[in-house]
Design brief:
- The chain has 496 residues and is α+β, with helices and mostly antiparallel strands.
- It contains 19 helices and 14 strands.
- Helix content is 44%, strand content 15%.
- It folds into four domains: 94 residues, no CATH class; 162 residues, Nucleotidyltransferase, domain 5 (2-Layer Sandwich); 60 residues; 74 residues, no CATH class.
- About 2% of the residues have low confidence.
């Protein structure tokens, strides 16, 4: 076998023939627009939807350049570029600008026009209401196509990081203390002689910038006459963001509420709030789903997890005839928590019932106590149930119920008023979820809504917002949900 030196050309080039090759090309082969639309269903879905269904008159009302001024960037082009880039996982305005220069799909949708990043930011900030109209219109179109049925809707929330640093987070009193410490640090740096003067000036300038942020916030607080002892923590970079806890992490972010239809996991409602608790968000999300519904669906079922459980939510569902599936949380119930002492009887061991509107409590000893007027204790309203000592005197469980039994002193059980008022509704909810149909419906919840967050946060890597303020964040989340629906439309739209 002939030995070949791989580090030298030798005679190997003489053993084969090749086509002429040079990277210095004079032109690139052009792809026709029709070929791009055919090869990419996402591009076709976005192009057809914007051209067919979206009225550009919505965006023309805020333009004042009919007779004077330079021509504006076409609103339809901006919508197509935003929808496509968000669907492709590009969220930064500068990255979108660069993508319209190299991505053939983005070049086609933009009409071979590279959009400036500042134009993209201004468009998002200028048309929050119009983009919400587009989302509503899209849900309506998807329902007309048969992709949305509203037979089963799952609601859930997810925490997403905001555009701010924890460094400038605190309440009013903390910022006043920090202001004093920064002022002391500036005075100390002014007297510093060991370090170089340039280094000291840089440190002083950084401290003065931080001090300016704090002074601006405190001046706004003084004008609003906010109480000094408030515990609400705000961020000076993004004042609408709040500290949230998610999977053991604490960061500045927002609570993104989403409702998805069970047929094709399409988003039919979306909102963003800076309240980390889920309970107050259920009623607004139900109203959001109904607003986008356009046509009523009487047998619509709504399912949510235990984080949304509250008496008010159950009562609202009953009052408005909403078929709600909502499990009770571990710490719910409204009865007193069990004491740490093992074997001690508390109100948790009692059974609460109603008889002709009268609340009754069946103690473990078998006595049925009726409610008395609610009392206010430590910021909470309770119904009190008394078991007379005449009954407790001969009860076998007396020692477990009374710490120290004294004749003439009744045993008292406290139950939260809101729990008593909604006990029947809670009991009906428990019975609904224990039935085979209820279990089957609730088990579908995670398959519907968790898939949505998984695709958005893990598959398309949307894990933080790139704008500040609750209104702008709401607009960005709306764009993310629209882009998600376009991916579903491109996948299932042709099959209907």
């Amino acid at each position: 076998m002939k030995n070949i030196n791989i580090f030298s050309k030798g005679d190997i080039d003489m053993q084969a023939r090749y086509h002429d090759y040079t990277p210095d090309q004079t032109y690139f082969i052009q792809i026709s627009p029709g070929e791009i639309r055919t090869n990419n269903p996402l591009v076709k879905a976005i192009d057809d939807f914007v051209d067919t269904h979206v009225s550009l008159a919505l965006f023309s009302e805020k333009r004042g350049n009919a007779y004077i001024g330079a021509p504006a960037v076409h609103a339809g082009m901006m919508l197509k570029v935003l929808f496509y880039c968000y669907a492709a996982g590009t969220y930064s305005s500068r990255e979108i600008e660069r993508r319209t220069g190299w991505d053939q799909n983005a070049i086609y949708l933009s009409g071979n026009r590279q959009v400036d990043h500042s134009t993209i930011c201004r468009f998002i900030e200028k048309y929050p209401v119009e983009l919400r109209h587009v989302f509503t219109l899209m849900v309506y179109v998807l329902r007309k196509m048969g992709l949305v049925s509203y037979e089963l809707v799952a609601i859930d929330g997810s925490k997403i990081q905001g555009y701010g640093s924890k460094e400038f987070t605190g309440n009013i009193s903390e910022f006043r203390e920090r202001k004093k410490s920064i002022e002391k640090k500036i005075d100390r740096l002014m007297k510093e002689t060991c370090q170089s003067r340039d280094r000291i000036e840089r440190k002083i300038e950084r401290c003065r910038c931080n001090l300016e942020k704090i002074n601006s916030f405190l001046s706004d607080v003084d004008r609003s006459n906010a109480p000094e002892d408030t515990h609400t923590r705000v961020n000076l970079t993004d004042r609408d963001a709040r500290l949230v806890k998610d999977n053991g992490r604490i960061y500045l972010g927002y609570n993104c509420q989403t409702a998805a239809d069970a047929d094709h996991d399409i988003i039919v409602g979306c909102q963003v709030t800076n309240n980390a608790s889920e309970r107050p968000q259920l009623v607004p999300m139900i109203n959001e789903v109904k607003k986008h519904q356009m046509e009523s669906q009487p047998d619509m079922k709504i399912v949510a997890d235990a984080g949304y459980f509250s008496s008010e939510n159950i009562e609202y569902a009953e009052k408005h005839s909403i078929n709600l599936y909502l499990p009770e949380g571990k710490n719910e119930g409204g009865l007193q928590k069990k004491r740490k002492t093992a074997g001690r009887i508390t109100s948790k061991d009692c059974v609460l019932t109603t008889d002709n509107g009268t609340k009754q409590l069946l103690c473990p000893g078998g006595y049925t106590a009726q409610t008395v007027d609610p009392v206010h204790d430590h910021g909470n309203y309770f119904y009190r149930f008394y078991v007379p000592t005449s009954y407790c005197q001969y009860c076998e469980k007396r020692n477990r119920c009374h710490r120290t039994f004294r004749p003439g002193k009744s045993k008292r059980f406290n139950v939260k008023r809101e729990y008593c008022d909604s006990q029947l509704a809670r009991q009906c909810m428990r019975e609904k979820l224990t039935k085979p149909e209820g279990k089957k419906i609730y088990n579908r919840r995670s398959c519907i809504i968790e898939h949505v967050f998984g695709e958005i946060k893990e598959y398309k890597k949307f894990r933080r917002f790139y704008h500040r303020g609750l209104e702008k964040v709401n607009t960005l989340w709306t764009l993310v949900c629209i882009a998600y629906n376009f991916r579903k439309l491109s996948r299932y739209g042709d099959t209907v």
